[in-house]
Each structure stands twice: as C-alpha cells, then as structure tokens.
Amino acid sequence: MFMILNGLLIERDKAHIMADSEGYNFGYSVFETIKIYKGKALFFEKHVKRLKNACDQLELSFPYSTDEVKKYCCDLIAANEMETGIVKILYGKNKNTTDMVISTRQNTYRKEIYDKGFSLCFAETKRNPHARLTYIKSANYLENILEKQSASKLGFDEVVFLNIFDKVSEGSLSNIFFVKDNILHTPIVSCGLLPGILREKVLFLGGRLGLKVNQGEFSQAELITADEVFITNSILGIMPVSQICDYKMDLSNNTITRKLSDAYYQLIENQ
Q: Which stretches are annotated as coiled coil (predicted)?
C-alpha cells in the first residue's frame, strides 16, 4: 500500500513525520475523509474547500491548489487500486512548515448494516456551541472517540451529543436528521455541530423532493418520538436509525428516508 507525504508517493511503511511536530503532539491539524466510489473521490472540491477554510481559522498556510490535491488523491487511488473505499487528507503544523499526509483505507459499511440500521444512545459530554473547535474538522477528536467507545461497550453504533443547553447537536461522526409529520428536521449549525458535506447534500435533496425542511433547536424527547431518524456523513451516506436508547423504530415506515437515500445514490452516480 502507498500513501502521499507532502506530494510524494511512497510506501506506507516508509512514511515518517517529525515526532515533535505540533500536529502530532497537540492535534494542531485538520483532516477530511472522502468516499471513493467507482474510483472517484466524491464531492472532492467541497471537501478541499472546507479543509482550506479550517486551515485559515487555525492560521495554517496551505500552499496547494485544489487541482494539485486532487491529482495527489487520484494518483494514490490508482496506485492502491481503490475502486471503492476512503481517502483521507490530514494536514498539520510542523514547526515553521506543515505536513500533508494522504492515505486510503477500506470502507467497511455493507448493505446488511443499512438494512439493520444504527442504534444510538446519548453522550455524557455536552457540546459547547461557543468553543472555537466545534465547527472545525480538526484532529482533536478524542472526546468523540471516548464517547463512541463508551457507546460501543453498551452495544450501540453511534452516540448523540446534546449541547450545553440540552438541545440535540450531532453524533460523534455524523449529523442527525429526523422526520415528524412529513417534515424533515435537523439541528441548526449554531447548536454546536460540524456542518457535514452530506448534511448539505441532504438539505438540497430534501428541497428538490419537495419536502418541508426545518433547521432548528430540538430536545432529546423530540428526537426519540420522531417518525423516522437517520444520520449522515461522507462515508456512511444516509444511515437509517432503528433504535435510540431503549426505543425501537420500525424501518419499514421510513418512507422519506428511503426517498432521500434513492436520490442520494442517483446523485453520486452522476458525479
């Protein structure tokens, strides 16, 4: 397997970064994970735009053009013979310079997982809408990892964060949508969430399908009593939710979720 380090295609086990870099020691870095579908990185320009915006907010210089990064990713996808999977761009501070590491891995989500749906529980930690890193996809992911590990030990697939005002925010690796009385709802960004690329696409698709779409503030009870719930991220796409804590949800009733999923697959076929 190969990876890209600062523009160079090298074997994975020969890639090294400085052990005293700020990116390694303090998580002073940002990243994007992008779905590979039929050999192509989906919504690539959107991901790189978000990466560059995060760099600006963290005062990280980014000397690469979008076309340069795209070429690196395409070269790596071809070298690793990835028809489907994931490409990750990690960009971090290293003293007076920076490092860009691009890697690939397999996508482990299969049809049977979507048929079963995800189970969710709620995190003990609260999201802070006023925190500077809340809206940046930085490598400071330990809080998310710990909460997801705790959920996994209890048998759940994903964990939902409420914010400090007890409003639904986001998952550890996902954005949250729910349907109530044929209206599509999702927490507004100011609730303290990372606005995902797939979140944006679902909002667009919902409008195109003629759905009423509402971004707002929602309680835990409103999520639990929804008619349909699903989560999104760039790798999952649209994942139905079949359980929230002890509450079971009948996926056969997921009319709107299925319509959005069908529209999403049509969208990526045309990428």
A: none
Residue 61 sits in which domain range? 2-105
φ and ψ of 72, to 5 deg: -60, -45
Taken in order 247, 108, 189, 210, the sign of the CA dihedral is negative
Number of structural domains found in the chain: 2
Question: 122 with 225, same domain?
Answer: yes
The alpha helices in 177-219, defined as continuous H runs, are: 197-208
Whole-model pTM above 0.85?
yes
**pLDDT tens string 202-226:** 999 999 999 999 999 999 999 999 9
Dump pLDDT digits (tens) for 122-139.
999 999 999 999 999 999
Residues 134, 220 within the same domain: yes
DSSP-derived 3-state class of residue 101:
strand
Burial class (CB in 10 A: 0-12, 13-18, 19+), 125: middle
